[in-house]
Batch of 2 targets.
Target 1
Amino acid sequence: MKKILAVLAVAVASVQMAFADHDVVTRDESRLPVAARETIKKNFPDAKISYIKIEKDFFQSANYETTLTNGMEIDFNSKGDWIEVDCKRQAVPAGFIPATVKEYVETNFPTVLIVKIERGRKGYSIEMNNGLDADFDTAGMFLRLDD
Amino acid sequence: MKILVVEDELSLQKMVKDSLEREHFVVECASDFPSAMLKINDYDYDCILLDIMLPGGSGLSILEELKRMRKRESVIIISAKDSLEDKVLGLDLGADDYLAKPFHLAELNARVKSLLRRKQAGGDTSIVLGNLAVYPDLRTASIGGKELQLNRKEFDLLYYFASNPNRLMNKTSLAESVWGDNIDQADSLDFIYSQVKNLRKKMKQAGATPEIKAVYGFGYKLVLED
Amino acid sequence: MRLIHYANRNLSVLLLVLMGVWGTLFYFTIIDEVMDETDDTLENYREIVVGKILDDPDILMTEDRILHSYALRPLSLDEALDYKVRFYDSEVYIETEDEYEPVRVMRSCFLAPDDRFYELTLRISTVERDDMVRAIFWYLLVLYVVLLLCVTVGTRMVLKKVFVPLQRLLAWFDRVTPGKPVPPLDNETKVSEFAKLNKAAAAMSFRSQKAYEEQKRFIENASHELQTPLAIARGKLELLAESEGLTERHLQDIDELYRTLGRAVKLNKSLLLLSRIDNGQYPDSKPLDLGSIAKETLADLLDIYESRRIQASIEDHAPCQVEMNESLAHVLLTNLLKNAIVHNEVGGRLRLVLGKASIEVANSGETPLDAEKIFRRFYRADLSKKESTGLGLAIVKSICDLYGIRLSYACKEGMHRFSLKFAKP
């Protein structure tokens, strides 16, 4: 009986731990990794951070969603590498866009702006202000296009 | 008086034979079923002592054979198997008495004599020794024609003595033969002593010729003066 | 306590606790998740509202007056510096309903495009959430009780079915009695353990039955076989005593031998009697008046043991009619009464009480005897009584066992009391 109760106690504790953490919303820039702060300063020299939302998952690795006062949103992983830049209806700063991607867009959609770019393990994916999405591999080579 | 002893145990057979011969009976023996049958066919006996378990057949078959042959021998069954069924069966088949081993020889004598008296005298079973007469059927005794006043225990003792005149009888044997197994040996000594003392006194007062003599250390003997 | 109840009780208690803990845990997890859901919704709202404000700072000047779902407040720099997001439950007055309604509130801060910090307060009604939580609680409780009932009743039924072969085996054991043939064991089962148990039980019963039979037969045969040699030895001694020229000394020795042999004969007879009783060789029984047999026997025994000067008294309350074998009835009463005389003090008291279905024999004696041992074979309470066979009371016990007579011993008021209680016809 004691054993069973002990096992139950451990189970309760771990479940509580897993569900306990709320996302943290803060305006404190210092909670961002240094790399993230630098990325922002370099690409958005005039912008100010409105707030930062820190999401923590099961394994306690954090995800930082940074919203700027102009409404743009840059997401970083726990190391401070950017993983998504959403500039709403404005152009994503060129510093986030690999050369091949830029070249592809300029070639195929010369008048169009890239408003959002995501970087993942499988490569890049961009959203343009004409409503089209495009996927690229990790080397920046074009993969597919969809709307 | 001729008696046949059918008994497979030779030493028991010899012992019974010796004892009966001291009473002046003519005793013959058979130690198995076939020889017993042979003897019964060839001769007449006054009494047969029959063991039930015999080599070659059951003593009960001998009883049946006797019945079939319409022989008038008195039969006493002697059995080691002291079971009620055997007893009932034996008596049903015409045996006159049943004696379980181990028995006292005095007891055997008494039974044999009682049977023979009954048979011989055509119903008169009295024992006469000198001026003493014992009437077992009436449970009375007289000396010189005059009735002797005895209680039950004294009569039983006297009858037993009278059945075994001139034989030495052990105290415990006397007690057991008269009162069965209920008496313990230690108690039997005092008991027999007082009973025999009373009996002797009564017999002496009535002037009996037979006399109960104490044999120191062993028991008593009814001695008939010649 | 029966095995089925024991197992069922233990299982039920275990389930009660396990399911109770599980249910509680489940309840709190669900509640936690529901609460979390509200907070997540608030966070989403916040993102939408802040997104809108960043897009269109004019909204800063507005306030939700309809649902009171959000409110904005400028923050001083000091306030903003160590601002912490807060979630809490509260109440809000609803004018249309004219009552307070529970709400969940989230307060957070953000930097607006005008470079000022604002506090955003978001509210969401939790009336429905609370209803749901209550419903979940009751559903879980009812489910818990119903499940527990089902499990308890279910386990009971299953256990009952599982233990059927065991019950049958136990019932069979009740029917196995030493000395009687082993009844057939009809206990079909697919469970190998029970099958094994059946086999072992049957084998053991047969073995013990066989051993019992053999022992009985051995005692009977041994006693039988001893009869003839004992007869010869005793007869020879009788003849020897009559030989000519024996001295007194010789006669004394012969007497001693004769009496020793007499004890052997008596022992042997008692053993034979015991084995006959145990073998049921006294089958025919008839109604007997045990009271009058007891009185006759007592008179005879008092006669024989006159020298012990026993003060006997008889209390005759009712005729004691019992159906049994006549010779065994005599053996029974003789042994009991003789015991009361022989193991009495000289001049002691003996009381025979005759009832309708009971007989009590009491004799003087102060020290209680060991009731466990006195009915054992060859047990002698008084070791100085060398003459006693130590079988008298064992024979009494055997006869009582044969007829289902309740035999008991007690020592009260300076009397050893042996009582027989007969089953009422």
Note: The interface with chain B takes residues 224-225, 227-228, 230-232, 234-236, 238-239, 241-242, 248, 251-252, 254-255, 258-259, 262-263, 265-266, 269, 272, 276, 281-282, 300-301, 303-308, 327, 334, 338, 342, 387-388 of chain C (CB under 8 Å).
Target 2
Amino acid sequence: MEKRVTFGKWTIGILFAVPQLLLIFTFFYWPAGQAVYWSLTLQQPWGGGNIWVGLDNFRSILSNADYWNSINASLVFAGVSTGLAMFIALVLAALTDRQLAGSRLYRVVLIWPYGIAAPALALAFRFILAPEAGFMAVVNQIWPGFWDPGLDGADAMASIIVAFSWKYVGYNFIFFLAAFQAIPRSLIEAAAMDGSGVIRRFWDIQFPLITPTIFFLLVINITESFQDSFGIVDIMTSGGPANATNLMVYKIYSDGFKGLDYSGAAAQSIILMLLIVVLTIFQFRFIERRVHYR
Amino acid sequence: MASITIRGVKKNYAKTQVVHGVDLDFPSGEFVVILGPSGCGKSTLLRMIAGLEEISDGEIAIDGTVVNKLEPRERGCAMVFQNYALYPHMSVSQNIGYSLKVAGVPSAERQQRIQAVARTLELEHLLDRKPMALSGGQRQRVAMGRAMIREPKVFLFDEPLSNLDAKLRVQMRSEIRKLHRRLNATSVFVTHDQVEAMTLADRLVVMNGGRVEQVGTPGEIYTRPASRFVATFVGAPAMNILEGTVELDGLSLLGGSRRLAMARTGLPVGTKVAMGIRPEAVRLVAPGTAGALYATVDLVEELGAGRVIYVDLDGAPFSVMTSEAVHPEPGSQVGLKISPDDMHFFSSETGARLDVFKASVPEPAL
């Protein structure tokens, strides 16, 4: 029998819940509600009231080629960085799980990147990937003009993807390693007795058994790549060159606070929220079917 | 069918040695049971045969081929694990057929062989289920099927019955035995359960502390245990051991408080011995019977077919198993009659069997 604390009056229960409810309301529902309201009005840049405009903000955004470019860039960024961060983390975790030399050290070292604030790591990568002085300068020395994120949109996109992936490799690694270690050793041994080699065992036994973790990380990585990318974009490229890295989350900021189009920015954040919701629902509906829960 | 030869095999983990040089020969087709308490190195030895554990020293040969450096899959062994180790994401038929799939056996033949194995193990109606939807006994059977389908030279069993309930264990035991008779593959079965060991084994290996204590048929192990450890480990209830000293015409037991008069033991007078007597070899007699030890009854355990009577012999615990219809009251006095033929003597120092007691030992001149 589960032990439960029961309250004589329901009001006492509510009182206990109030602090948490207050926090959620103040920092989530209220701003979210405000954003919805703003997105349906025209906000004066210097204050002085709102004008109700219905869905005009959405119409004007969705008919803007720049915005579609931003959605496109965000999707590319989300897809590539999630793939990269998860693939590298998976390989590292699989190797660590085999108890290769130094695996204890990796385990500690690999979580650190996740603890670094995005702008700080972006600054580091800005130096590392600088075309004139950093690591890539060596490559430019051999192939002049090969790398210049300040001029080439693809290079700029690659830079922010590398920086973001680097941060999430550590995060994913910890989850993957835990998932690998949760697989009973005897399953791997049974597969070895059944004649399965290291690679075959990975695909036949380990991979299917960590699919719940893969799915979880997929949802988290994609969601975070839409949101957590702001600091990296801001420091490394400021959305340039020529809007090549103007991700949705960055465009919200630049349109709203630099362009002073508060209403348009609010509408964009509503669209971003809907996009994440739709993507998450899609993942749960179609990808989760392939997950083996034990 | 293959013989297994184990020569001076040792196993070290970092600085601790867990198997200290084991030499064994398992003839082809035999059912060998390795018995020992937990931590005695029996599973490690099995895993070294399987190739799941590196052999630190010595060599293991299967069918005359030294397998020390071979991968598990190259050794021709199949193993049944204690927790079954079924692949949870595969159906029963996929579990059973996995080794064939890895080996690249065509699908049609694979299905045929899966069906054949499933029929033998009565798993046909479960082939599409996932392991999670099976009972313990069914999982056990699937694990056996997975081992059988490869038609291995050697079957290895790592305490496969310990997760089952008592009734199922007895049933699976006889099934394993029948299976072995049919397939006749060399089998090595590791267990800490002596009943399992006695009933299954053609040959029994008793291990303790990383060493082999005795190798023999279950009958030999029971009637002539090679050491005090084997004597007390095999048999239930455990053999009674009484410390004593050899005297000219008997044994002084329990620091001299009790004496057993008997013909000469053949051991030098004054030898410190541990005298062993199986509970089922002790006869209950009326207190005060000549030549009998007397003791106070502590507890009577009813087994149905017989009973175990725990008595107190000057503070030393002692048990008697009898099938006679006697029900002594706790606290009452009983006499214990022990025949010299049933006694086992072990060295007090080394625990090794002292085999000099014989009725035919010539009487020394007085």
Note: Residues 166-183 of chain B form the longest helix (18 residues).
